[in-house]
Design goal:
The complex is a heterodimer of chains A (about 300) and B (about 400). By secondary structure, chain A is mainly alpha-helical. Chain A has eleven helices and four strands; from the N terminus they run ααααβββααααβααα. In chain A, the strands form two sheets. In chain A, strands 1-4 form a two-stranded antiparallel sheet. Chain B is an alpha/beta fold. In chain B, α3 crosses α13, α7 crosses α8 and α10 runs parallel beside α11. The chains are: A mainly alpha (about 300), B alpha/beta (about 400).
Amino acid sequence: MENLLQQLVNGVAWGSIYALVALGYTMVYGVLKLINFAHGEVYMVGAMTGFYTARALGLANRPSGLGLAATLLAAMATCAALGATIERVAYRPLRHAPRLAPLITAIGVSLLLQNTGQLVLGADPKFFPPLLASHEMLRVGSLAVSNIQLTVLATALALMAGLELVVMRTRVGRAMRAVSQDAPAAALMGVPVDRIIQLTFVLGSALAGAAGILVGLSNPKIDPLMGLMPGLKAFVAAVLGGIGSIPGAMVGGLLLGVVETLVAGYLSSTYRDAIAFVILIAILLYRPTGLFGSAQPEKV
Amino acid sequence: MRCSRGGGMRRSALGAALFGLALLACGPDKGGSGAAGGAGKDPIRVGHFASLTGDTATFGQSTDRGIRMAVAELNAAGGVLGRPIEVITEDDRSVTEEARSAAQKLIQRDRVVALLGEVASSRSLAAAPEAQRAGVPMISPASTNPRVTEVGDDIFRTCFIDPFQGAVMARFAHDDLKAKRVAILFDFKQDYSVGLADFFRKTFKALGGEVVADERYTSGDIEFRAQLTTIRGAAPDAIFVPGYYTEVGLIAKQARELGITVPLLGGDGWDSEKTLEIGGPAVEGDYFSTHYAADSDDPHVQEFVKRYQEQNKQVPDAMAALGYDAARILADALARAGSTDGPALRKALASTQDFAGVTGRITIDEQRNAVKDAVVLKIQDGRFRYHRTVSAK
């Protein structure tokens, strides 16, 4: 029983990272109907930014909450800028092209970032400095929850709550929802569609940057290709939740993390990576709209 | 980008200064040329395929440093057969398939007389058929999986093999740690890790112990908490983690976070400064078997450690020592063979007897493996410390 609880804690902490990345996929899909395959690389850039920021600030041997916050902000800011740039340079010129063109461009951007990362930063894995000294926060029987897991979870939940606030309670959020429902109509109502799309990239990328820091905190090995697998998994999480749906991405991410952990813990870790794609296939076959998505009639 | 492909630069024998410049120009630890001495004579070309970058980068880098140090010393003493030795290093980026193509390049493009490499058994296994087919003797300095030398009679190694290493750690867990119940967490994508786990499991059971959890992971994984939670539930007295240092450091960290306090045990895949860097306090009190101890009081070892430290500003790990020994055994065999001809060299290598290396006295047996002692190191105060020697007999 305690083991199962522990696995759930592990799974939720791991899944919260997927959830943060999945949000970026789903938001961009919401406004552009584009799967931004470069999103996993934005997450990688977030982790790398954190690594170099922590080094520049000399935080490697002085774990502190303040240092962590500074690193987190730096990564989010860098990724936000990167997201805006990618949108402006790679996707906006293709706004009215057939949908396949931006999709292929997204794969191109992804490869560009992966290989630039290897060229500039080196292919070697880097080891994220311990920004928090790890210790036990909670112990019930053998159930142990470390401060790191709690920090990851709390930060992820806080960011998701913040996003929910922005999207549901602000003018910008309302504009985003309007663009996502019907971009031409939103434009006619005076919504600056290009700016709102760019802002969507900014928000989604900042969350991916935060996910990069959180993964560096709890699983401190980073490299230029680290975004590939989590990127695909987060995409699966977004589809699982219902692509385009913000609560769906959160639930999908957490669920995927828990399922992966349970599979690795009780079945075999051999199937850990496979399970995500089995889920993807099952969802596409039986419930293409995902858990929270609603079927929309095709607009002609 | 690999610097070693810079054509003329790589092939020239311009000596240490230019070599240093070349290294600077392409960042640290990427290939280059390294022949000096015996100028004017055609050098004997030796290929080294190694993981200079990637997940196990320190293995390739250390081995290369060890080899180059040995070759520089040999060349300073007049080379072999009156000719200098030139080492050509090809990076395989720690990727199994690239090891094969790196070996191919060295054989076909560079026409090397012998190959040195790899550390990881999967990569040695990928390259060995190429060497065997071309009739170019290959010496793996550090691959411990038995299958490596079974590829053919051109494949040698200068280290002990996993049945021995696995048994050493199983006995150590049983006799020294008094463990009755152990858990195993191994990397099922690496022949090395699978083999070592296998021999450990067999020996530990034969000694009357119990394997209470048998979990696996994949190279490149970063999240191990699920497997570790299962292991924690089985309440073992020790956990055997026969992986490579990158994952080992992460595993140790996550194990301690989950409140697992029993010692972790490992094999020579742990032997890298990076284990300490990544694991930090989490690997304190853990043990692993390896090929030599840098803090041994053997004067031969101390002399090697001192010279290596002068040149590289770091304590040589086992891979550096094995690289050094492998290069010297090759040179010794070349001298005895009297030629660089494949069959003659193979025969000379096979008859290597009681060679005094820094990793012990090396005799090549009929299966082309080295018969050697193993040492167990303990991680204490952020350092590897000699714990005990286990004899090969």
